[in-house]
């Protein structure tokens, strides 16, 4: 694998953006520079270190190029401004992106007293461009990005070593798994111009590298979670599967253990229930689940009007066929409630898997987490782990001794796919329990711990638990906008009232973000990943405020005034008879209640929905 330019001098003048490679590890020479012409937008590479005719407006050190975002009014070069070192894995450094920045490619010129770009724009177009830039900022700042300049962080170890990809002298951007290559769209122009050494593939998710001391021995523990960019977005705007079988919140989580030249890897996956369903934000705490299960439904028919032999399970079949090709046999564990609206979704999921796949390809297991773990008894999740024991034993895990080419790697032959309704809190509890069992097996194989002991018997178990709780928070921040729920159990092994209070606060915060922030966040991800129609007339729909009717605009104000009037009547209106006060309070409450009922019934209009037109 060839290395990338991970450190460079970044200079900007009126006419040029010049990036000079500084690191000596890269497959380019130390005199290589990347040029972007600010007049034409042309990008190219030269084996020279130029002396600029003008003094640079910007002259700083950067840590990698992310790509170029094409907006209607300009192009923006995005780069890594600050980074945080996470750890070293198999002699490869891994970093977290601490801060990104960008600069307009088209230069700014003086035109009288005004400063404009080389392309003339009107006020409306400029406002639209500013809105898109703010969305770009939101996507880049809210997503946890990680990268390695010399290692294929987008691929799991089994794929790398079993197919000998690691021996190929190919650029990382050409061997990356596009499911997890978040800046592929941004980097397309660089890739098309064969500027491979300047393309830094980013994954979104979580990476942690730690040393685990176990008696007199030390192993290195790495946890990597890769969030898929194929169907990205926050939870109430991104549910279920699309027509191609790509599901929301699909995450590949890899647990890696290294001890000298011994390398172990175990992978679990999670993803939304792979049927077509949605929960549109509407100011209710739990919006109603709507399932596209029949061709008679207008939405379903509109989506697939040109497709013959449409089945409610078509996307489910496509999803599991893709997983079978990529991973092998699956155990699909569903932790959703087996009553209420979740049960309807679960029944469809169960019938779809059992009707279309034999159990040795997809083995469906329904386990009502809330029923079995009622009363804060989360330890009962180990009953489910015991139920999965035979599958985990037959699936195994990846193992290879580095440097021993005569040894055939031990492969992981199957995978556990876990979901709850969000694929967050309940899923995190089960995945951490499975990871604990597998880690114990691997340490026993290395004879670091005896057959009678488990990782729980060592002080380092607290570090293991905290890593998994931090991992849960990271995935939840991406999908739900807050840290995960139930992480007090993951950290300490028991549920606490303090943890319940924290969960209550996070639930309220989720409610606010789901209704009034996530619509913008969905637009931001669609923009970042190249799913927005960049036609100047179709890029955005009317603003949030302009889409409300006059009645919808005024009713919230009437509600507020009625509530204040009620409070005034209770606490300050004391110079009149009690009958008048009661009548005043009742009338105010009646107006408030009617207004609130109107707001709730029109909740989808008040909740912020995505505005950008997608392709």
From TrEMBL:
**UniProt-listed Pfam families:** Syja_N (PF02383)
> Transmembrane residues, as ranges?
554-573
Q: Does the keyword Membrane apply?
A: yes
Positions of the SAC domain: 136-481
Query: Record's Gene Ontology CC terms?
Result: endoplasmic reticulum
Q: Give UniProt keywords alphabetically.
A: Membrane, Transmembrane, Transmembrane helix
GO BP? phosphatidylinositol dephosphorylation
- GO MF annotations, alphabetized: phosphatidylinositol-4-phosphate phosphatase activity
Which domain of life does this protein belong to? Answer: Eukaryota
User: Which sequence ranges form a coiled-coil region, renumbered to this chain?
Assistant: none
For this entry, the protein name equals SAC domain-containing protein
Which species?
Answer: Galdieria yellowstonensis
Q: Tell me the classification of the organism that encodes this protein.
A: Eukaryota, Rhodophyta, Bangiophyceae, Galdieriales, Galdieriaceae
């Amino acid at each position: 694998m060839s290395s990338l330019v991970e450190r460079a001098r970044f200079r900007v003048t009126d006419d040029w953006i010049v990036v000079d490679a500084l690191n000596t590890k890269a497959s380019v020479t130390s005199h290589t520079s990347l040029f972007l012409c600010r007049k034409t937008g042309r990008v190219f590479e030269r084996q020279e270190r130029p002396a600029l005719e003008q003094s640079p407006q910007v002259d700083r050190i950067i840590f990698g190029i992310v790509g170029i975002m094409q907006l209607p009014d300009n192009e923006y070069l995005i780069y890594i401004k600050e980074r945080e070192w996470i750890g070293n894995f198999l002699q490869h450094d891994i970093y977290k992106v601490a801060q990104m920045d960008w600069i307009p490619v088209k230069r700014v010129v003086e035109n009288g007293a005004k400063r404009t770009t080389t392309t003339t724009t009107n006020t409306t177009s400029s406002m639209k461009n500013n809105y898109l830039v703010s969305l770009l900022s939101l996507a880049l700042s809210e997503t946890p990005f990680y990268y390695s300049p010399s290692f294929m962080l987008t691929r799991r170890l089994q794929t790398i070593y079993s197919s000998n990809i690691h021996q190929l002298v190919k650029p990382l951007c050409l061997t990356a798994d596009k499911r997890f290559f978040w800046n592929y769209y941004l980097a397309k122009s660089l890739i098309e111009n064969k500027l491979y050494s300047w393309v830094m593939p980013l994954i979104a998710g979580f990476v942690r590298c730690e040393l685990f001391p176990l008696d007199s021995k030390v192993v290195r523990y790495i946890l990597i979670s890769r969030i898929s960019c194929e169907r990205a977005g926050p939870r109430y705007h991104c549910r279920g599967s699309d027509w191609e079988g790509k599901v929301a919140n699909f995450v590949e989580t890899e647990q890696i253990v290294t001890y000298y030249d011994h390398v172990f890897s175990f992978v679990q996956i999670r993803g939304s229930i792979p049927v077509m369903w949605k929960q549109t934000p509407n100011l209710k705490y739990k919006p109603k689940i709507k399932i596209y299960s029949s061709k008679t439904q207008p939405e379903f028919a509109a989506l697939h009007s040109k497709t013959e032999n449409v089945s409610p399970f078509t996307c489910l079949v496509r999803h599991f066929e893709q997983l079978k090709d990529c991973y092998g046999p699956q155990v699909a564990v569903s932790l959703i409630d087996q009553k209420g609206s979740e049960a309807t979704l679960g029944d469809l999921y169960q019938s779809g898997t059992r009707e279309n796949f034999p159990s040795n390809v997809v083995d469906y297991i329904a386990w009502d987490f809330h029923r079995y773990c009622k009363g804060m008894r989360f330890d009962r999740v180990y009953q489910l782990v015991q139920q999965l024991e035979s599958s985990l034993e037959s699936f195994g895990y990846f193992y290879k001794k580095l440097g021993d080419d005569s040894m055939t790697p031990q492969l992981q032959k199957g995978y556990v796919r876990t979901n709850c309704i969000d694929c967050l809190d309940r899923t995190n509890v089960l995945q951490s329990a499975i990871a604990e069992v597998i880690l114990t097996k691997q340490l026993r194989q290395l004879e670091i711990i005896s057959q009678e002991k488990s990782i729980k018997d060592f002080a380092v178990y607290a570090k293991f638990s905290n890593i998994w709780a931090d991992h849960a928070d990271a995935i939840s921040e991406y999908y739900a906008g807050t840290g995960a729920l139930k992480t007090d159990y993951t950290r300490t092994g028991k549920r606490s009232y303090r943890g319940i209070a924290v969960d209550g606060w996070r639930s309220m915060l989720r409610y606010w973000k789901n209704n009034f922030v996530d619509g913008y966040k969905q637009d931001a991800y669609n923009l970042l990943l190249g799913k927005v129609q960049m036609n100047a007339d179709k890029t955005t729909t009317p603003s949030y405020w302009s889409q409300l009717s006059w009645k919808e605009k005024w009713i919230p104000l009437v509600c507020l005034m009625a509530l204040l009037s009620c409070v005034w009547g209770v606490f300050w209106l004391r110079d009149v008879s009690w009958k008048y006060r009661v009548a005043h309070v009742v009338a105010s409450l009646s107006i408030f209640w009617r207004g609130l009922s109107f707001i709730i019934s029109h909740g989808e209009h008040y909740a912020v929905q995505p505005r950008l037109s997608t392709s």
